[in-house]
Amino acid sequence: MKNSDREQPNQDAEEAKCRSCKRVEWITFVMPRKLNSFIYSKRNLLLATIFAVASYFLIPSQPEMVRRVVATFVFAAGCWVLEVFPLPITGLMIPVVLSLLGVFSPQEAFAPFSNSIIFLMIGGLVLGQAIKKHGLDRWIGYNLIIYSKGKIDRLVLLTMLATAFLSMWMSNTVAIAVILPVALSILTAIPEQLVNLRKKMLLGISISTSLGGMAMLTGSTPAMIVAALLGQEGTFGFLQWAYYGLPVSLGSLAIAFLILKRMFPSPRLTLNVDEIIEQKKQTERFTGSQKRVLSIFLGTIILWFMGGQIEEMLGMPASISSAALVSILAILVMFGSNLLDLRDLQAIQWELMFLVGGGLLLGEAMITSGAAGQISGALFSLNNFAPTIVLPLVFGMISLILTNFISNSATGAMLIPIAIETSRLLGITPVPIVMAVALSAIIAFITPVGVPSTALVYSTGRLSKSELTKAGVAIALPTLIVSLLAVWFLPPP
After folding, report:
1. pTM of the entire structure?
2. Do 241 and 216 meet the contact criterion of CB atoms below 8 Å apart?
3. pLDDT digits over 254-279, tens only?
4. Rounded distance, CA 119 to CA 116, Å?
5. Closest to 214 in 3D by CA, of 255, 260, 263, 158
6. Maximal CA-CA distance, the chain
7. Spatial separation of the C-alpha atoms in residues 366 and 489, rounded to whole Å
8. What's the rounded Cα separation, in Å, for the pair 33 and 456?
9. pLDDT tens digits for range 308-319
10. pLDDT, tens digit, for every residue of 325-341?
């Protein structure tokens, strides 16, 4: 790889110098039209319909409900893969199609849209909006530069950690909406010669949104689908997900940083951040509203993790142990503290509710109709040729490939029910195989298709597709290995 930052033979002398940062010019990143415009393709709609009808007639020996659900599954998958409609619109079509086919009554079909996981997601979306509204993103930007002490790679590492931390508690779309303008603003202050620093910074935040989203239940749609489907069979919540997700996330972040550092080496220069320090001094210290937002944010995190213990200590009924209830409580407190108003809700991506609800319903239909069991039967036959320990690898590889060509939400919605049924056939706990699918589905940063955060970073025009793909593959494969090691060797919680 060509290194744009590599200096001439006088590099040693140059490295001893200190390059000055310019003022941070705070910019507003505008969502590219392609990402929020309505997609509609008559040709692809026809193809998806043909595939769905063909799948119905290709399995005449199966029960009628299985045939109808498989046809719906193929139709939804076709719409997601071929981008017939925006992803949330396809999600909203699923309850309509399943109701018209008689698989569910309308009441049953729309029940997943009121699943507690939906309200957990709403909490994450609103918290992200509050952080943006009250200027905490600028505070993040100033401190990233100052605490890096002018060290280039330390700046990249701190930016990746900040991005990952935000992505733990909100969807990657919300996290990137907070951090991408910060990163682009930081880059306005960086000397233009440091091309590799710019690439590392943008690739780092793109990858960190996904890797950070692995850590906590609130971080990604596949995680929420797992919680909703496994939660029907027993207790599966924040602690159970973090048991696998947190170590995988932290280990993968360390690997990603080292790989990016090697792929895009930078000269060992120290940036002069005096100008940034002076610029920060001109801003106020934490305002009262910023303190209140931070307090609510931290309090929400504590209740997500320790709500059950607090209930036992205080002798309270089961309430704050519900992650969804805590999320809505945080929203109410923010409105009660005058930190948000109804206009702020207009900026939230409510369409994500349609995508998650549709995915949950499709998963339930696959399981209750027996369609997932039929597909799992074919995968179960692999057990005759390979040990059970190989199944997480098979599911993980399929999930990793799919998630980079369709959305990670669609990948989770399609594969997680099949993983659950396969585990039932084998008579084993579903958690390891399901976690292999979900964690692999989050590794969606090889192409701009898998998650909006990668698409938004790519849309800045500062990275080529080959750079995005090369770095994505180099980091995705070790991340998959770390995920598989976790599900193989960590005993089910």
Report:
1. 0.81
2. yes
3. 999 999 999 999 888 788 888 888 88
4. 5
5. 255
6. 77
7. 29
8. 11
9. 777 777 777 766
10. 888 999 999 999 999 98
